[in-house]
């Protein structure tokens, strides 16, 4: 099966001179089409940095990153911007929606950034909202939504530009377990339905059964089993 | 525009309030500018409306029209060096005028001009000056409001000459007093032929002016603007108003830049998210710029309407003059200043890193 995302011995070092800190110590990961991978680990293990590097927000110090068939490890800021816009969907902690946009406008912002036609985009947005059960909320502002609805809106936004891969940064952090579960379920369903891929960083153990694969992050390394059980 | 308009719509109160401040500041700018212009014209419209490029003065006059005195030799020299139609001499004198039979005295300035020369004022009402007739005068329209009518006999205080008012002229004042124009012949007769002229108005380019200044001894050539500045009180009046206007522009720039700076700081996280999902810095900067421009333009339109409304309500005696070039100039300057004020926010927006979005609660 085709790889949606591939990291090959990716290292990331912060600081310079004597103060160097190696946060990612050689990470190798392949995420295939239709796969939903969870990354679990204690805080300070490098999860956020991993997500930033995989999500084209940070360039790696060394190693190779492929999204689809494209090598993004050596691209500049502007190109990375375009990669994020076209191939990556983000779901952030506690939604991070734009407070002055209605649910529908949150979605329409993406085609606006890509200078695409509005008519088609409106159709796509409406069908996404319908599938995620948000159509009755489409003219509401984030402040009027419940936590779960916000996170669902964020998921709808992440799918809006039809990305190859979704990166979720603790999407259930601000939700109770029932709502959190339904949000993750939704994410998993969409991944299967669209034949894309997703990575979710979380320390919520209850959600792991919804994922196809769980990898553990410890001290800048990924492993398939936790070192301490 | 997508983000800019939606945000302003959502946070109406915030933007209405800052817009209101901008309206007040720009209103003050326009109002003080109108006042400055009005005062300038009230002070010295006789010089302002003169269709001359240069004024020739006596070198010892310290650039003051009323102190200058040109000799006949100098006049002859000037006439030799320039075409007759390009120059015209004039005299002026501060005086008081008394309507025959009335006790009230009016401060005014007497201008002696060649009725055929290019600085002779056209009549707005009644007749204009004619060379042949002696002891006739035309006065500024503001005198009409003070009860002067055509046909009045007016006594000039210093010489006791009685002048006949034959017409009114428009926009003729000097040092905040209305101007009476008389012909040079009348002027001579009033002073028994002893009074010479103060200055010569000249139409010439700067090169020619310099050349003339060199060749005629004891004269100084000053531009019309310098002549205006040399009128007692003119420079001081305009200077203090101009300083107020300049400060208002600086204040406007600061108010806008602080407002947008604070708003941008508040939105660092939001801009981070936008950049993370793929918005370019340029797109976000444009959003801020659109908001600044939108706010400034709307405020300007409101304050221009406000200023024109207020100017209609002002008493006629209040010197206030607002014309299209002045308003346009102020508006352009205001827009420029607001864009400069937004630069600090634009820099802020560009500096924000998309990484702000990761690992953070909103």
Automatic annotation (TrEMBL), chain B:
<feature type="transmembrane region" description="Helical">
    <location>
        <begin position="283"/>
        <end position="306"/>
    </location>
</feature>
<keyword id="KW-0812">Transmembrane</keyword>
<comment type="similarity">
    <text>Belongs to the ABC-4 integral membrane protein family. HrtB subfamily.</text>
</comment>
<feature type="transmembrane region" description="Helical">
    <location>
        <begin position="241"/>
        <end position="263"/>
    </location>
</feature>
<protein>
    <recommendedName>
        <fullName>Putative hemin transport system permease protein HrtB</fullName>
    </recommendedName>
</protein>
<feature type="transmembrane region" description="Helical">
    <location>
        <begin position="326"/>
        <end position="350"/>
    </location>
</feature>
<dbReference type="Pfam" id="PF02687">
    <property type="entry name" value="FtsX"/>
</dbReference>
<keyword id="KW-0472">Membrane</keyword>
<keyword id="KW-1003">Cell membrane</keyword>
<dbReference type="InterPro" id="IPR051125">
    <property type="entry name" value="ABC-4/HrtB_transporter"/>
</dbReference>
<feature type="domain" description="ABC3 transporter permease C-terminal">
    <location>
        <begin position="243"/>
        <end position="353"/>
    </location>
</feature>
<keyword id="KW-0813">Transport</keyword>
<comment type="function">
    <text>Part of the ABC transporter complex hrt involved in hemin import. Responsible for the translocation of the substrate across the membrane.</text>
</comment>
<keyword id="KW-1133">Transmembrane helix</keyword>
<dbReference type="InterPro" id="IPR003838">
    <property type="entry name" value="ABC3_permease_C"/>
</dbReference>
<comment type="subunit">
    <text>The complex is composed of two ATP-binding proteins (HrtA), two transmembrane proteins (HrtB) and a solute-binding protein.</text>
</comment>
